[in-house]
């Protein structure tokens, strides 16, 4: 979010749309790759919707062509899009991967989470908390 706010303040909206479009497109392809990997590694798990593997493989072929074309035609936009994605890596390591955090870091993460939930009008259900009447 911080990187997006900085880009919005510095650049124009059209450029931001290009960055986000590339990021979205990249994430869709990675999701389809995950679908294929799960179908191969865990074929017996429950799937509410089943599709023939030809459909995601065909999608990936077109996705790869368009991704390579995007990287060739607009490498700067794609590079900035990748940098925007990579800004989430430190957040992942601080919030998820690092298990034995000091209590002050846990309190900070919890307060930022609570603030974000209030800002976006979302509530994450907590176990063991009785509902208020």
UniProtKB/TrEMBL annotation:
Keywords: Membrane, Transmembrane, Transmembrane helix. The keyword Hydrolase does not apply. One of its GO terms (biological process) is D-serine transmembrane transport. GO terms for molecular function: L-amino acid transmembrane transporter activity; neutral L-amino acid transmembrane transporter activity. The keyword Transmembrane helix applies. The chain crosses the membrane at residues 16-39, 51-73, 79-98. This is AAA1 protein. The lineage of its organism: Eukaryota, Metazoa, Chordata, Craniata, Vertebrata.
